Amino acid sequence: MANKITTFGLLLILNLSTKSSNVFAKNIPSVVTAVTNNSIAKLSDETNPPQCPSEIYCYGPLLHTVQMAKIYQDSKTFVDMSLKDTPDNTMKKFNEFMETYNQEPTPEQVLDFVKSSFSDRGSEFQPFTPPDWKENPRFLDLIKDPALRQWGADLNSLWHILGRKMIDDVKENPDKYSIIYVPNHVIVPGGRFLEFYYWDSYWIVRGLLYSEMYATAKGMLENFLHIVNTFGLIPNGGRIYYSGRSQPPLLTGMVKSYVDFSKDFEFAVRNVDVLEKEFNYWMENHMIEVDGHKLYRYIEKTTGPRPESYREDVETAEEYKTNEEKENCYSELKAAAESGMDFSSRWFIDENGTNEGGLKHLKTRSIIPVELNAILYWNARLIAEFYLLAKNSVKAKEFDDKAQEIYEAVQAVLWNQEDGIWYDYDTINKKPRKYFVPTNLAPLWTKCFDLTKSQEISDSVVEYLVNKTKVDEYPGGVPNTLNPTGEQWDFPNVWPPMQYILIKALENLNTEESKALAEKWATRWVTSNFKAYMDENGRHMYEKYNAEQFGGHGGGGEYEVQLGFGWSNGVDIEFLVQYGNKISNNSCSTFGVSPAIKLLLGLVTMLMSVRLF
Amino acid sequence: MIKVILLLFIGGSNCFFDFPEQTYNSPELLKPLSYLSKDVYLNYENQGLRSYLQQVNLENTIQRHNISIKNGSISHSQWLDRLPSESSQEINNLALKFLKTSNYFVMNQCGNKNIPSEECIRYLKEKELPNESQLKSECNSIDNEYHSFRRLLPANYKDGLYQMNKIGLPKPLEVSALASDNENTKEDDDNNLAFIQWAQFIEHDLVKAVVTTMHDGDTIECCNSEYFNLLPRYRHPSCEPLESVDIRQHTFDRKSCLNYVRSSLAVNKKCRLGVPEQLNEASSALDLSQLYGYTTEAQIGMKSKGFLKSNGEFLPYAEIVKDFCVSDTEKCYMAGDSRVNANPYTIILYTIFLRNHNQIAKKLTNENSLMTDDEIFTKAKDLNTRIYRDIIFKEWLPILIGNDNMNKLTKEKLKKQTSESFEVSNEFGVAAARFYYSMIPSSQKKNINETTLFNLHDEFYASNLVDKNFDEQIEGILNQKALAMDSTYSNSVLKRYFATKDSKAFISGADALGWDIQIGRDHGLQGYTEYVKACYGIKIKRWSDLSFSMNEEGISKLKTIYSDVNDIDLIIGGIFEKIDKDASVGPTFNCILSEQFSKVRQLYYNLSGEDVTSTPTTALCDSGAALICRTTNVKTIQKNIFASASKSNELINCTDILKEC
Hints:
The complex is a heterodimer of chains A (613) and B (661). Chain A has 613 residues and is mainly α.
């Protein structure tokens, strides 16, 4: 493979790989101290670096002391606070504080320290209304039902609330903040997720494009391109503590969406080299070979618990004795976070090679995930397409070949002829993981399949969904797995991006049966989300929903269900656009609702008519 | 004013205590359901059973993380207060399968087919399941001897089926803060501690809403040891803990989570789908089951030949302490109900009836050498229960519901009815019967205005002082006035309820009123105003309409917490009401309490053919005073034991009372 790469590319990759795997090398002392589970362990030169260079936000005794004091219900609260003083002075103050209390402060004393040295979370942002926001984007006209149309307008309004712009001080004094500075304003997921998130942004950007907010969408893409140039990868989210790992690589897909909507082809041409750079980061750092095929998995190479879930990770690793075992456990947790599916039995491999067990059975790094390979295939195809636009046929050919290589590996290792579906692959037990996950259909979404065999694949896939796994039976959407573990990416939770992937996959098969199922699922999804939205007092969009409840919302995992919510809004907007001319009123807005809601519905409709006429 | 309305209502209705029957609003919409094939039902049943197994898997995960109630914790006291028997756990497991099947049916068959959920759910209750149904055959094979709560008004759930209404309602701990009054010393005009002691004892006989367990009977805990809510991944679906802070603000507050596990469910007696009813591990028979045992195991555990097991003059000690007490006290009492050790007052009254039984049994043994042990036991139990029931109906109940309702209750025609119609009402069980919590003082005094005998918060589920101070305590109970029945609670039940013995804990104790609000919502009770309407035909639409039953101060307090007058929880409305003339509670609680005791009377008639209210009331020998004289060392006692001694309630010598017997 390497000898196929042009000299220019090779240089670029070499340059990138030093930068990405050792991006913080200059900031880190050769021997760092990391605190794990009350014992100070010395890390030798050979061990991996911490997740980021800050002694306050990323590793070290201050982080350990504050997070282990359990002063906040959500561990992320602390690492999102900004410093009142310089990092050096803060550390000095902390050391004095520890000495004063004999290295054993009470939680209340720790809280006092935090309050005196840190500003409340969210202080790095200023309220911001995206200037290109439109009150009446044209997509609303495509929605037949008046109540749903009003909801579409509400979803469009939510971009207001989710817009964020950083204060200038972040640029001037970045080391006082955990937030990663980006030049343009962003749309965030919402709730505890105050900053941008990588894969969430794919569905947010698509929603923005339907809302005709091209400038905001482009600004977010430019932020990401800027970050690829600085970090060599796109971190999981917009905080330094996320920079040791990425998330499913959807930047190229976002650029494609932007170009499709805006016809700004020049943008793709201008930035295709940066997309290549990100692509190569994945090639270099995530590859694993199976039977001579190169495939890709989620993996990361840093030390320590996740700063934003520090205490939770320390507790998960508690049953491991050696530091090495603990670090392995942290790495599996962080790799699972890189997948975006943190956490799920999808990443469990227990002693018997099944998906039973708990977080201690995480083996993310040993599982080849279908969607990552399908997405990387797609990236290669799109990069080839953009190089063609740029009239660089050598590069275009190179990426077409790359795509073909991934396609063949996906078919050879992940496709399961017997069940007629793709499965994740367990590299420890060398066998397919025959468990339902929506991502099993991801190759259909990214068109990483043989289009000439659509009918055949459609037959087996529909059989798989309807009869074999019976995932069509759930009133609130297709669950992420069929294994109820309490983790948030397991049964009964239903996730908006996964509904998107499933429905797009079925649409791409383009058979009668697959299109009928796609429409059924899209309708159910939209109406169930609408019910959840109308049902609640404050009119809420949730980050996740519940398969067993029509109009319910999700739970589980390590934090409370969040409201907002970026990707939910984006996915619903897209389905309203696509299917809104078919979904009728009586299937969604008048049944089973309490009289109070009926009244509200009536009011909404009344307000609507006032607005319309 | 109240009286006029009452009279009007009596004039217009055959029976004051009857609540309206439910009817369908739109039967034509339900038509499509009648065409459904049995396969449709069986399909939803399969989905329900799968969902049940999925919950079992989740429970296995939670158990692997050792998340359960820890000995000695606040949750441990709560567990003893709501301890389910093994058979209840079995019934609850089956009820859960029914519930999950109903959910799939409603979600798929009605949710998206323009059929109102509530009516769809009610339809299910009338529909026989197909014979092939696994649920039906499981249901037919279980022991039918369980009780469930009856509903005065239809269940009020978010989804019409089981989800608790929370949206728009203030959190239980926000509401209960209204009842906080550190200086709460306002005493009741008449009632003494014996009155509330009996109220609790009677509650133990009629009501026991038990908690849900894991599928294998393991306990469910919803908070971690720091009193934070558990991480969502460890949260059991039955968890609805009380939270004291708005967690969205991420405020530092250690007292942020109090365990609350939803109540066990009962299977519909006809083995049908629909809204599940909560299980009642007690029955409306006033039969001293709290002492003799409601379950067969408990009954066997308490019986010793013709006698009740005892430890001399006292209750027997529990063999497995953690099933009866929270601390490792040596003297942890056993009775037919885990709630015997709830506080010193309960222990004393359980002891009095234990002594009474054994005295009667001894007398029978001496008089009738031919009677077998079992005959003696049965006869003694029957006489003991008769005395208990007579005291309740002749002395205690008239004070509670007042003469008006007592007269009406007595005059109600006795008739033969089906057993379901006698079940204890949910509204009585988890709201009205809890009225006396407002009257519980924080401490008991030795004598009037004298030194403190004990602080209640030290005594929950671990009292060591009963056998030492038995007679002293009886004196206090008879002489100390209860607090006024009003909207304030003493700290012992509002802040230090089930106070933890763990000195390192960051929480002083639980909140009985907060829990009562939550259990009302768990059981799907309607709001207070719906009961006002059902009892008195009065529609409360505006805050000012509440002046029907409340004073201005109370109304403005409620306004600060509830955004809608129709949101007021039943128990809150109940304690904010002005007391009915010559009764001990306000009109709506009175309505619910009277309705239930009318059922108790009807049930007794159906069981024995006798009218519990008809026998002459005068025999001093059958009075509460005589009972106390017989079973304790009290020398003099007031005629009415539920009020302190006074000029109108004079002290009599016990010897004078007993010589007539």
